[in-house]
Amino acid sequence: MQSVTREKGKAKTRISTGMMVVTMALVLALASCREQSRTDSMAEAAKLVAEGNAKGAVVIYKNLLEGNPEDREARFELAKTYFELGKPDQSAREAEQLAVLADPPAGIHLLLGKALVAQAKTEEALQELSAHLAQDPDSAEAWEYVGHAHARTKHLDEAAEAYEHSLALDRKRTGVWIELVATRVLQNQIPEAQAQVEALLAANPDNQGGLHLLAQIQTMNNDMDAALATYRTLNAKYPTDIKSRYNEAFILLVTQGASEQVAQTAKNLATDYPNLPEGYKLLGLMDLTRGTAAQAVTNFERALRLRPESETHFFLAQAYERNGSLEMAISELRQVLDASPRHLKARQMLANMNLKMGRTDEAIDELQRVLTYHPDSYADKLLLGDLYLSRKDFTKSLAFYEAIPDGVEQSATAHLKKGLIFGDTGKPEKAEAELRQTIGQSPEFLEARIALVALYKQQRRLDEAASVLDAPGLSQPDVAQANTIRAAIFLQQGRTDEAVALLEKAKKLSPKLATPYYTLAKFYSQRMEPEKAMDQYRQLLVQQPQSPSAHTALAAALEAEGKFDEAQQHLEQATASKQADAYLRLAGFLARRNKIDLAEQALGQCLKENSRSVPALVSLSRLQLAAGDETKSLATLRDVAAIDQKAAITERLRREMAANRWDQAEAEAAKFIELAPGAADGYITLASVKLQRQDVPGAESLLRQALEVEPASIGARLDLGALLMRAGKVEEACRHFDEAIAKSPKPAEAYAARGMAWQAAGKTDAAVRDYEAAIGLQTNLPVVLNNLSMIYAEKPALAGKGLEYAMAANALVENNPFILDTLGYALLKNGRRNDAAAVLKRAAALAPQSKDIAKHLEMASSDSK
């Protein structure tokens, strides 16, 4: 019975000792039951995880934590279970609560690091993994995830190092082995990758991931038979491996084309696995192979909707390119490169598309990035060298060519390009050495032999030039081309019978090769045998009925013989090619025949086909002006300016000078300086205008300004030398000429300019020395040949040589009235009056206002009577 006491007026309950003992016993019993219940729950959760029911385990752990939020073990297990369920966000949230404790449970930093890697929070992940490794530096799992973290951020060197550390601690970690091999592949370290995968498969012959990597490496090594065998092994061991079935079909498509077997595999994959992309990718590749690019786009887009992959974006880029959608293709390639910056083919394709679109700077940038990731990509070094060569940046182009070592596929071409550069920059000995090295590496490389022939011809080493082309092992078309070039040398040496025989042989070896026909036609034209020349063009048209150049060449010969109707027919046939040049030649012919309306129609048709053809617009503007329609002419000239401002200024300048409106001409020429104040060309043009209006001081001042703004300008230096020579300042003029010859990449042209200056100053002997030096370096200079011919024609002992030069000039520039005038005069001085009269009549028809031609024609006609 409970006793009650009172204290200061209050009643107080007192618990007896016995009751306290009973109460404590009850409390302990309840606690023991709860602990037993928690232990059972933890065991049950662990059992569920082991049975694959992780979600059920999550429910138990969460119930335990509701009852006791401080249960560290339950929270740790919950974090681990979330990670196994592929829920890194929830795993990290739980793990973070434990990691911040003063005494965190062992392994929590590793678990949190793994979750953060899965969340792509690389820096935070590396901090947690480092914290774990500080406690356990030999944790193979921690090093594995360090590798994963670096791989996510494309730090492949660090990733590979971490994977190797993990494997050194535990060689049984097959997944790490596979990641290391995949990383080496991404690093383009193929031999290392192959060695690792072979070691992996030696320990685990049936490893699926290892077999896939082996096949990938075999494909990269272009060993398609081995790759095909590996995929067939995979398909036998793992019949449900969709990726392997796809890759086997892909290799068959690449090596054997769109076969029925590939088509059936594509159809089966698309039908049996409609929610996987592999079947649609194969269908798209089949479409690309068959040329149905639009359908390929549809299939690749469907594959991307099912699973976005870099490979599919790359295929889609190819389909867009084939379909003409270059901007769309570039967009797809950028997605590929965002995900895989080292993707060699994607970056090369992007560079090439930029080139197609005229974006040279962007192409160079992409190729430089290729070399960042693939420093041994010699094809791209060669292309970069070519791009800088096209810009005349010889220093940079040489640097890329010289970075290509001997023994690789591109080395012969690199030596060839170096030889061409040295030849163009006045270093013939170096050029010869490089070209000889090219031929030594690739004896069948005809282009190198042709380049060496050109070098020897410049040096007048004609016998050596001919011998270079006598090479065994050339293909039949190359033999035909070599025979044609040797024939040209023989013609230069006067060995005409041998030359004709070689050209006829070349025609039989390669009937569609145009060069032998053109060479023979020029030969017969020079011998004043027009019918034989025209017969060569007709023979070529039998082989190439649609050849616009053959039609226009025959038309020029027919026009020269006064067969105007037939000439017009061939020019009209040439326009079937839709080429601007063919229309321009037809229009020029019609204008010469005074058929202005028809000429305008031809130019109008040209502009329908080639709307931005500046030469066509300029020609049309001239015809309109000649017809008296100045308003139309100026409107057309404005169209020219919208496309090419310099071309419009040039045409306006020509008109002002032709009309002797010198103030207006100077105003037009000054616009070139406004367009490019830092270039010498504008000053040179304005100086030439001033010189024509006899303002010698003004011209000299402008040429000196040109050299101030562009000291390396060869043209300004040559023009200034010529002007000073005319002014009698011979010593200063020679200094400028000597510097131009020393620095010019084409010294032959500098010699020619000095020769013309000597000739204008009445110093004929000095002019001859420079002219001979010029054609000694470069034979295809028609102005030099023409000038020398006229000089020699006046000297009976050299008249034959003068005729030879006149014929060579005429062969280089057909239907030029002033070159024809020289040829006629040289024929006259060699006693061939009838031939001279015929040629001079052609010249007079082309330039009826020329008094010199009229005088020479009168001489020939009076002598021929």
From TrEMBL:
Origin: domain of life: Bacteria
Membrane topology term: Single-pass membrane protein
TPR repeats: 140-173, 277-310, 344-377, 480-513, 514-547, 680-713, 714-747, 748-781
GO CC field: membrane
Record-linked Pfam families: ANAPC3, TPR_16, TPR_19
Major subcellular location class: membrane
UniProt keyword list: Membrane, Repeat, TPR repeat, Transmembrane, Transmembrane helix
Record carries keyword Cell division: no
Gene3D superfamilies: Tetratricopeptide repeat domain
InterPro entries: TPR-like_helical_dom_sf (IPR011990), TPR_rpt (IPR019734)
Keyword Repeat set for record: yes
UniProt-annotated location(s): Membrane
UniProt record similarity statement: Belongs to the Tom70 family.
Protein's name in the database: Tfp pilus assembly protein PilF
High-level lineage: Bacteria, Pseudomonadati, Thermodesulfobacteriota, Desulfovibrionia, Desulfovibrionales
